[in-house]
Amino acid sequence: MTENEIRKGLAGVVVDTTAVSKVNPETNSLLYRGYPVQELAATQPFEAVAHLLWSGELPSPEQLAELRRIEREHRALPDNVRAAIDLLPLEAHPMDEVRTAVSVIGASDTAGGGSVLDASGSPEENLARSIRLYAALPAIVAYGQRRRRALDPVEPRDDLDYSANFLWMTFGEEPDPVVVDAFNRSMILYAEHSFNASTFTARVVTSTLSDLYSAVVAAIGALKGPLHGGANEAVMHIFDEIGSAENVVPWLEAALAEKRKIMGFGHRVYKKGDSRVPTMKAALDTLVEHYDRPDVAALYTALEHEFVSRKGIYPNLDYPSGPAYNLIGFDTLTFTPLFIASRVTGWTAHIMEQAGSNALIRPLSAYNGPDERHVEGYVASAEER
Ligand code: SDX
């Protein structure tokens, strides 16, 4: 193995097949089980896209009704999860809160028999676990934001579908259809993106025949990083630093002089722009109009123009998502937990696909440490010689 055969970060390395989604940087396109994500975002409720990712097909009306029935059964914040979150300091990062909550749900699911030999679970058990996590995450994320604001939790409402109920539990106000539609689109756009770092993490854990919950907890840890899911939170911190469009040029010139990475721009796979950005930008535009915030649009456009013209690096999905979630009223620290609530559908689709392949993921490494040497005075025994 020579150093130049090493592909750091697995950049450009195809490690397996997947039927869940296709990311094509040449055509700047993204297909979920063959459907262009733009078409799904424009026509489907998030529940239907979850079904598509898990089963491979869009649901019939009966299948959608059944998924909605099961989702409603598992929307309420489990008492032991609330108790676990309440043990955490208010200053705990919400990503750590959600990671803890998923751990509690996993540890409480003793149906798996407890033995590591039963951990991986059957396809039916894992689909049920996937739906339960997808159903519980809105309550977990909403509770975290309300707890930090010293507000009581809001009970879910059965008369509201997934996205509207998510907003209801977070803000305790009747959700506006314009906001529900923009939020629903963001959940669809964030749901799946082939072997990104957090999804691949989930697949590595699953490849050892470990359980779905352990794989999701590991994926949450990977998603938290600002080079990955944490970027949507980081974008908002940048917007707050800049303040208004007039400050973009001096701020950017100072940031680039400090060699800072400008969060929300760039992508390991897309090099001519992220296929999801136009759809999310359109959703942001509806929110800018709905909340009458042309200042947000001006800052967004100015920073994009100045950075792209200087670096030729384009926005990724996190760039329009950050200001969109801010306009809706989510705390900046809640942004990446929203990414979890959406991506749990893609992660679990990949976990179930990996579980079916039964192939341990274990790459090689090229050693570049000290040559072999021995402990001073050590004399190997006769057996060891
Ligand atoms: C997500 O993989 C996925 O699909 C992820 C995701 C998903 O849906 O799961 O799409 C979600 O994670 C989107 C990405 C969110 N991250 C950010 O916005 C963080 C900022 N972006 C960069 O850190 C960077 O663009 C990466 C990490 C996303 C991708 O970088 P690469 O492909 O590993 O390339 P690189 O970091 O080596 O950058 C190449 C050059 C470097 O310059 P040099 O050091 O060679 O001189 O471009 C520069 C980088 O410094 N560069 C940037 C930059 N992105 C790249 N410089 C400043 N700001 C940036 N944002």
Automatic annotation (TrEMBL):
Pathway: Carbohydrate metabolism; tricarboxylic acid cycle
A Pfam cross-reference name: Citrate_synt
Cellular component GO terms, alphabetical: cytosol
SUPFAM superfamilies: Citrate synthase
Source organism, top-level taxon: Bacteria
GO MF annotations in UniProt: citrate synthase activity
Active site: 267, 318
GO BP term, pick one: carbohydrate metabolic process
Catalytic activity line of the entry: oxaloacetate + acetyl-CoA + H2O = citrate + CoA + H(+)
UniProt entry keywords in alphabetical sequence: Acyltransferase, Transferase, Tricarboxylic acid cycle
Chain coiled-coil ranges: none
Listed NCBIfam families: cit_synth_II, PRK14033.1
PANTHER family: CITRATE SYNTHASE, CITRATE SYNTHASE, PEROXISOMAL
Assigned protein family: Belongs to the citrate synthase family.
Protein name stated in the entry: Citrate synthase
Native species: Leucobacter triazinivorans
